[in-house]
Write a structure and sequence with these properties.
The chain is of the alpha+beta class. Helix content is 33%, strand content 16%. The protein contains ten helices and eight strands. Strands 1, 2, 3, 4, 5, 6, 7 and 8 form an eight-stranded antiparallel beta sheet that branches. It starts with 19 loop residues before the first helix and ends in a 10-residue tail after the last strand.
């Protein structure tokens, strides 16, 4: 495993058949080769996972934005696309790379396994509904598996109660749900479960007041006014000059960028955004073990 870090690749307890060869294009493999070189230069193997996050996220700066990259086949597959990213796939790819035990060609299968673990409930691909479509549900699942911790309440968050039903109410916008009513019923059940949980958020006008409680590399889930939707965007907290910025795949900037303004000021310019939920790496601290 990684020198100076007890990490045991976080998928070891999950039984997953990894179809890496079938899901990674040559173009994406080339990006991974470039990343292995970048990882060696940045000495990622010597960093704890939480310190890797902002370093890895910067690797993707300038990559083109593209939405809906996961819905390219009728069958639910672990689609890999490192060439074009949206806010969700940026976070998935960065975390999947951060949790690797090595940074070379031998890590390709593990990278795909990590994507599956991060993207799907219980780390298993069953159908379209096993993908974690809602970000609060995703964070709940990551926390359940001890991969991330929801630190919003500890950072000063207040209760966030909002019914989640956007996908079922707009199912005609989702071809898979429109075609298969049994999957639509499954989504409704999932939405009901999400809506029963207690979540917390930090209103956007309070972000600067809790700036010291946001850590470099925290996952930032941005809550929204949009009816039936829990969050509308996500990215990574990036500390610069003592302030918190957002590194994210921007639909307006059409690429992966760091916000020009600090996070609160950036969000104040977007009326539909209401606040943030924070997820943090929970992996062990470095020690002298080699795995």
């Amino acid at each position: 495993m990684i020198r100076l870090l007890t990490i045991c690749c976080f998928l070891l307890s999950a039984a997953i058949n990894c179809p890496a060869a079938a899901t990674i294009s040559e173009a994406d493999r080339q990006i991974l080769r470039s990343f292995w070189e970048y990882a060696e230069k940045q000495q990622l193997s010597n960093l704890s996972v939480e310190k890797r996050i902002p370093v890895i996220a910067r690797f993707f700066l300038g990559k083109p934005y593209k939405s809906n990259t996961l819905n390219v086949t009728q069958e639910e597959l672990p689609v890999i696309n490192l060439r074009e990213l949206d806010c969700v796939t940026l976070v998935e790819n960065v975390l999947a790379l951060a949790y690797l035990s090595q940074y070379n060609e031998n890590a390709v299968d593990s990278f795909v396994e990590n994507i599956i673990k991060i993207r799907y409930r219980n780390g298993k691909i069953e159908d379209y509904t096993s993908r974690l479509h809602y970000s609060t549900d995703w964070l709940y699942e990551m926390q359940r598996q001890n991969l991330l911790k929801d630190v919003t309440l500890a950072a000063g968050g207040i209760k966030y109660s909002k019914p989640v039903n956007f996908m079922s109410n707009h199912y005609t916008n989702y071809p898979v749900l429109a075609k298969d009513k049994s999957l639509l019923q499954k989504i409704r059940i999932i939405e009901t479960e999400i809506s029963r949980r207690t979540y917390y958020y930090i209103p956007k006008e309070k972000i600067n007041s809790i700036n010291g409680k946001i850590q470099n590399g925290d996952v930032v889930l941005i809550t929204t006014k949009i009816a039936g939707l829990d969050t509308s965007h996500l990215g990574f907290a990036l500390k610069q000059g003592g302030k918190t910025y957002l590194l994210h795949a921007s639909s307006t900037g059409k690429k992966v960028v760091i916000t020009e303004q600090p996070l609160q000021e950036y969000m104040e310019g977007i009326q539909s955004q209401t606040g943030i939920i924070l997820g943090r790496i929970t992996f062990p601290l470095p020690d002298d073990s080699v795995h």
